[in-house]
Amino acid sequence: MTTTAISTTDLTDLVSGVRAAIDQHADWHGTAQLVAEELRRHLPTPDVLSAEQRLGSEDSYRSHTLYVEPDGSFSIIALVWRPGQMTRIHDHVTWCVFGVIQGVEHEDLYDADLRLIGQSDNQVGDVSGFAPPGDIHRVNNTSDQTAISIHIYGTDVTRIGSSARRFYN
To answer: What does the pLDDT look like over 12-21, one tens digit per residue?
Structure first.
């Protein structure tokens, strides 16, 4: 996964909403739900990325940093997935919220013993949030078009390098 920082002002309302959600000082599951509500209200369009960024990469899904809160309390990242690209099975270091803005992203959910417990095809406009424990999943693009999603993590992922805590076989 390659990370590319970009500068954008189209996220002002989303950033303000995420700040307000975090300021409620809920637990991680509660915060994920509050942030998901804000992402539903302020879900950007694919135009938040340049035409070149929306193409993705032949090698792997691509990550674009859209915003990092100065105090490191959250990051907003766009992920671009070409057909067939996927993550490894993983969990997270903190709460996570995502919303699909183009295409379809398939998600497989696992329990702590790595048994498949759920699957969903997330369509444009679908938003979901979750937090550890209970956040083991794999995401992939099963469609024939490029998919793009917005992810909000409860940390500065540019500082720690990844939102993933562990990868599983």
So the answer is: 999 999 999 9
Tokens representing 155 are 């940390």
Domain map (residue ranges) of the chain: 2-168
CB contact at 8 A, 142 and 104: yes
User: Which strands make up the sheet holding 75-81, listed edge to edge?
Assistant: 2-5, 62-68, 75-81, 147-153, 96-102, 127-130
Place of tokens 């995401």: 139
- Cα 27 off chain centre by: 19
Rounded Cα distance between 1 and 129, Å, is 22
The values of phi and psi at residue 50, to 5°, are -70, 165
Q: Shortest CA distance to 63 belongs to which of 81, 43, 45, 50?
A: 81
N residues, the chain: 169
Distance CA 128, CA 53 (A): 23
Domain 2-168 fold is Jelly Rolls (2.60.120)
Q: What is the mean pLDDT of residues 42-62?
A: 93
